[in-house]
Amino acid sequence: MRLPPAVRLASLVVALALIANLFSFAARPEVAGLFPEPLDKVAHLSYFLVLAVLMTIADAGQRPLLVAVALMAVGVADEWHQAYVPGRDSSVADVVADCIGIAIGVITTRRFLPARA
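RESULT FIELD:
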């Protein structure tokens, strides 16, 4: 059984919308401190875990390394972007939390995807 193309496309669209939202939301200085330590790391991990699940479904689990590297680049770009927003800061720890979420999302999703025909 393979994933239907509509499921893969919907996963991609939702993931891209979440990435666009991430950068739009991060550009707002008033969101600084929305999640206090250490909950901000949980938020990073969770957000990127969801992105990893969606992108792995969109990719049908065929290129997990590409999905992981692309999402890591999104995480780094997000932190870099935040460094230039007044009231926001960037953190290596946030990128580490992103990467942990990505790893969990990609590995878990690939394990449960239907086998390729």
